[in-house]
Design goal:
The structure holds 3 protein chains of 3 kinds. Chain A is an alpha+beta fold. Chain A has 3 domains: 290 residues, no CATH class; 118 residues, no CATH class; 58 residues, Arc Repressor Mutant, subunit A, CATH 1.10.10.410. Helix content of chain A is 39%, strand content 21%. Chain B has a two-stranded antiparallel sheet. Classes of the chains: A alpha+beta, B mainly alpha, C alpha/beta. At the B-C interface, α1, α2, α3 and β2 of B face α10, α11, α12, α13 and α14 of C.
Chain lengths: 484, 101, 510
């Protein structure tokens, strides 16, 4: 039996506002417990919520970026359930009328382009934190500590349609979404600090079946690796269960990274009836067309538009354009470098950034903002490849030297100092070829006999003689001529 | 639509209120009485009428007023005033019996 | 010989204020004599928390200001707050075991505004628990008593507020009105009370019951005194998202109500012998049904005739959905309350049960112990009507009917009348302990006040007569105005109080 996995993701992004969504407490991470929680965050009697304009702006920005409909009128609703980290024992969220409706996200899985539609995105408040560090309560009971610093932090909950069909696709979607919210400046994307958390809804069905299978929700995945593993495990678990004659129960599950498995948390069927109703403390939120236009005017060029431009105006492949527009810093670096190159050569910059530069950054575990080679310098190096001063292969050595800071990272100085200039003089190359041919009559015979591999062997010898500095195209061309 | 014992148990659980069997039975009877009173609502034809969440919305457009995104600093002095009524605290945290997930 | 406090020698806040500013009496003297009277009449159980030192400190501060010649209209005036307004210093219990030891780290906006205006608080007043009830019998700290008859209820939920004013313990008191909780106790205790337009007075710091219905309102001996308290608290508050920045073009700030009142009074004076010439009084047919007791009907009728003698004209109107206001209110208010009261879980404040197993046990026991029966009842009803499957048929349906009720009032004001009048309650104050088995019997008696709350309109109660029983009990007249017409409403009430003396009667000392 062939199975199809169906995945939908709900992502909670903490918005990068100064203050909380309904109170003016700070949202800064890492403060001493309960020092960033005022009477509203603690739900003291008589306290009332007041909505933060900044949180709404973030939502509008996001909605515009994914081509969604920004609701001119949206409603905050109370989601009622009891939990100690939820001070009011209801969460102010949005239910029937969310601020952002629809929209879609384009991304690549390998070199395959995918588009996933979004159902909605809505604003809500985050809960506090439970610290399960064996405290002792007033009667000697094992106790949990509650810190409400995080309670009231603005969240944008982003819900996708269940259109993903593999863990890899889900991860690619999540990475792209992660990149987008940071691009827009609405979320710092710090997954260790909990700024970006995914819940995965996973179900399976026989291939070709129209109805969805029963789904389980895996909550609070805060790394892409966990997201991938959890989905893979869960899909396998459900398939095995069904194949063994069982049925999948709709429930909430947690991913245990140590054991690499998902575990049931509570059954969604038994779970609370949230009794959503419009919050009487908060009249409907009106977002005028004017406001939307003001936000649109202030938006940075969006990844989609930039990607388009990189493809059409700068000649990049769809894949490369998508890769470079995952992160605004990368896109900016690329544009700066490409601007210094002659028309039509932007692809080289793309290759170098996605190749050597990325590898160097990964090795040093730093971000592109800390790159030891600036865009202009990289462009200067690429210019030397274009004008034939160095070959692509030699250029890599030059790059490594630039990265290490030799000669203040100046490519020309490095090339000069190390004598790496490419030999392009046909006379000089011609002599080298003659020498190698004279020294290797047997290989020449093999070539004449039709063995193409012999050609490469000769090229190798010539390059060795030239210490790698001979212009490869010229070597190939001249060698062919001389062999006849 | 009469309220059953299960309904009472479910509502009491949702509202986190412990009811003894006697309380539960009395509640069931009372709720049924109240339901009789509020059931009158169902007979009313309200086709095409919007629910009214804010009482002034019949008189004027009411929409949500927003606050500027500015943070007010907090500190440990303020924290002690805000936590002064807590039944159990330790190291600046509220304490509750441990929940096992 | 009973102790009547010093402030009762003055007929109005205006007169007392003048005496204070002239140095004829000091705020401290007034405070001390009020504290003595409260002690002497502790049998009324009007007060839950009195702290002489806190009160005296406020009185001394008032005297300082007066000494510098900086006294305003409320400086030194003795008032008190219903125990659902949070206060620093005094405890705030909402008359519930749940908050028996709670002290708020911040003041309600209403409390701050009155303190800034120089009023001196004598403490916190008894009420029905979490403002749920209409007889002050649902208090965890014992019922408050009606000063006219100690065996009778003072009304509710602002029973302590009405009793304290009627007994002369304070010049005025704050109350809250969700379904009639200022108007009804005012009527039953023979004092004046007003519930302003929803959104004109801040709810920040009011322990929430029914968020879309709750409004703070003062109780006092007459309309002019009500004005002195209402005007400074009628103000836009950015800490309350339902607070309105403006009222039909006029900024929602102190001065608005007073200006409207002054203009209305000036217009009346031009009417000479018929000061209310041109005023159309709508009388809803539905308010005069079988449920209304004959003596209340009689007193209200007499009041209407008085208004006619002042030049007003009576118009028969219909508020066809009056009866529906009962089920609509008793779906919406409990629904909102069930959610508002979820925060009381024994975690961050409030009652925590003495022994418990796990967290769920702790929470549900604490709540069962901390809340009284009426509160528990309303939480459970409210939870039920919000449940999946019932939400549309009950909660949404109630909100639709609410809109229809509001439209009925709008129609009446647009086509027929300038003000609506009628009874506040079907009968006078019942006996404490009477008819406690049927929880919904009390609910039915709210029929004349609920619609106003659902519609968010301003409304008042003023004394207009007494029952003919051995211990005469007060009867109130309800006046209902259109949105933002508090000032006009007060002026209409004031004119009646200039032509009658019901509001000047005082209960004999018990």
């Amino acid at each position: 039996m062939e199975w199809e996995i169906v995945i939908g993701l709900e992502t909670h992004t903490q918005l990068a506002t100064e203050s909380k969504i309904f109170s003016s407490s700070s949202t800064r991470f890492g403060a001493a417990p309960n020092t960033q929680a005022n009477e509203i965050d603690m739900a003291l009697p008589g306290s009332l919520p007041v909505l933060n304009r900044g949180a709404v702006e973030c939502a509008i920005r996001f909605g515009l970026a994914i081509g969604a409909h920004i609701a001119p009128r949206s409603v905050f609703a109370r989601k009622n359930y009891f939990y100690p980290d939820l001070p009011k024992n209801y969460q102010i969220s949005q239910f029937e009328l969310p601020v952002v409706q629809g929209g879609s996200l384009r991304f690549f899985v390998g070199d395959q382009e995918h588009t996933v539609n979004l159902t909605r995105a809505h604003l809500e408040e985050d809960a506090g934190k439970s610290l399960h560090e064996n405290f002792t309560g007033p009667h000697g009971e094992s106790s949990t500590g509650i810190d409400l610093n995080r309670a009231g932090t603005p969240l944008l909950e982003i819900v996708s349609e269940p259109e993903m069909r593999s863990a890899a696709e889900a991860v690619a979607y999540a990475r792209t979404l992660h990149g987008l919210v940071m691009w827009l400046g609405i979320c710092d994307g710090n997954m260790q600090e909990g700024s970006f958390r995914c819940d995965a809804n996973v179900s399976v069905r026989p291939k070709g079946q129209a109805e969805f299978g029963t789904r389980c929700e895996i909550k609070n995945l805060n790394s892409f690796r966990f997201l991938e593993r959890a989905i893979q495990y869960e899909a396998r678990r459900q398939i095995e269960l069904i194949e063994d004659g069982g049925t999948v129960r709709q429930e909430t599950r947690l991913y245990d990274a140590d054991r690499d498995e998902t575990r049931s948390m509570r059954s969604k069927e038994d779970s609370d009836d949230y009794r959503y109703f419009p919050d009487p403390d908060l009249p409907p939120l009106a977002i005028t067309a004017d406001w939307v236009e003001r936000v649109r005017a202030e938006l940075p060029e969006l990844p989609g538009a930039k990607r388009q431009r990189f493809e059409t105006e700068l000649g990049l492949t769809a894949y490369d354009a998508a890769q470079l527009t995952m992160d605004r810093a990368y896109a900016d670096y690329f544009e700066q470098a490409a601007a210094q190159l002659p028309q039509g050569q932007a692809k080289l910059a793309a290759n170098w950034i996605l190749g050597e530069l990325s590898a160097s950054l990964n090795r040093d575990e730093t971000g592109i903002a800390q790159s030891r080679v600036a865009p202009a310098s990289l462009a200067a190096l690429i210019a030397r490849i274009i004008d034939g001063t160095v070959s692509n292969k030699i250029a890599r050595d030059v790059f490594a030297a630039m990265w290490a800071g030799e000669h203040d990272g100046d490519p020309d100085a490095i090339i000069e100092a190390r004598g790496l200039k490419q030999i392009s003089d046909s006379g000089a190359i011609g002599s080298m070829i003659d020498e190698v041919l004279a020294a290797n009559p047997a290989i020449v015979e093999q070539y004449r006999a039709g063995k193409d591999k012999a050609f490469n062997s000769l090229v190798g010898q010539i390059m060795k003689a030239a210490k790698g500095k001979a212009n490869p195209q010229q070597v190939n061309q001249l060698l062919k001529e001389k062999l006849g | 639509m009469a309220i059953t014992d299960q309904d009472v148990a479910r509502i009491a659980h949702l509202a986190r209120i412990a009811l003894s069997p006697e309380d539960a039975e009395r509640t069931r009877r009372e709720l049924n009485g109240i339901l009789g009173l509020i059931e009158q609502l169902q007979a009313v034809d309200t086709q095409g009428v919007e629910p009214m969440a804010h009482p002034l919305s019949a008189h004027q457009e009411i929409s949500l007023r927003l606050r500027e995104d500015k943070a007010e600093p907090g500190n440990e002095t303020q924290r002690s005033a805000l936590m002064a009524n807590a039944p159990a605290t330790a190291q600046g945290l509220f304490l509750v019996p441990t929940v096992i997930e | 010989m009973s102790t009547m406090p010093l402030h009762t020698e003055f007929d109005s806040i205006e007169a007392l204020g003048a005496a204070l500013r002239q140095g004829k009496v000091s705020a401290l003297e007034l405070a001390d004599s009020a504290l003595d009277a409260i002690q002497a009449q502790s049998g009324l159980n009007a007060f839950l928390h009195v702290d002489a030192e806190l009160t005296r400190a406020q009185a001394r501060a008032a005297d300082d200001l007066l000494g510098q010649g900086r006294g305003g209209s409320l400086t030194g005036i003795p008032i008190a707050h219903k125990d659902v307004f949070v206060t620093r210093g005094w405890r705030t219990t909402a008359a519930s075991k749940m908050l028996a030891d709670y002290t708020s780290p911040f003041d309600a906006t209403v409390v701050s505004l009155l303190e800034q205006a120089g009023a001196v608080s004598l403490g916190k007043l008894n009420c029905d628990e979490f403002a749920m009830g209409s007889g002050n019998e649902n208090s965890a700290f014992g019922p408050a008593r009606n000063p006219w008859d100690a065996d009778a209820v003072p009304g509710g939920s602002s029973g302590g507020s009405a009793a304290a004013v009627a007994a002369g313990l304070v010049m005025a008191a704050t109350g809250t009105d969700t379904g009639g909780s200022v108007r009804q106790p005012a009527a039953l205790c023979g004092v004046s009370g007003i519930k302003p337009t929803y959104g004109t007075v801040s709810r920040f710091g009011m322990v929430a019951f029914g968020s879309s219905l709750d409004q703070a309102g003062p109780l006092a001996r007459h309309a002019r005194d009500l004005l002195e308290l209402l005007d400074p608290i009628s103000a836009f508050d950015q800490r309350d998202a339902t607070s309105l920045p403006d009222c039909d073009g006029a900024a929602n700030q102190p001065g608005r109500v007073r200006a409207q009142f002054d203009a209305a009074v000036a217009a009346q004076q031009e009417g000479g012998a018929k000061p209310l010439q041109g005023l159309r009084i709508g009388v809803p047919a539905e308010f005069f049904n079988e449920g209304l007791s004959p003596e209340v009907a009689q007193a209200v009728e007499a009041a209407l005739q008085t208004y006619e003698s002042l030049g007003a004209r009576r118009v028969e109107i219909s508020l066809p959905r009056t009866r529906l206001s009962i089920p609509a209110y008793y779906v919406i208010a409990p629904a909102e309350a069930s959610s508002n009261l979820s925060r009381y879980d024994g975690v961050r404040y409030g009652h925590r049960t003495a022994s418990y197993g796990d967290l769920a046990d702790m929470t549900s026991r604490s709540r069962a112990e901390g809340f009284g029966p009426e509160v528990l009842r309303r939480i459970l009803v409210g939870t039920y009507v919000l449940c999946h499957g019932y939400y549309d048929a009950y909660y949404l349906q109630a909100q639709r009917i609410r809109r229809l009720i509001a439209q009925d009032f709008q129609q009446a004001f647009a086509d027929h009348c300038d003000v609506i009048m009628g009874p506040v309650t079907p009968s006078v104050a019942k006996r404490i302990g009477e008819n406690r088995d049927d929880p919904t019997a009390d609910w039915l008696a709210d029929v004349y006040t609920l619609g106003v709350s659902l519609a968010g309109l301003p409304a008042m109660s003023i004394p207009c007569g007494f029952s003919s029983s051995q211990k005469p009990l007060p009867i109130g007249l309800q006046l209902i105005g259109n949105y933002f017409r508090e000032g006009q409403l007060l002026a209409i009430a004031d004119r009646f109080q200039q032509a009658t003396d019901w509001h000047q009667r005082k209960p004999e000392q018990q």
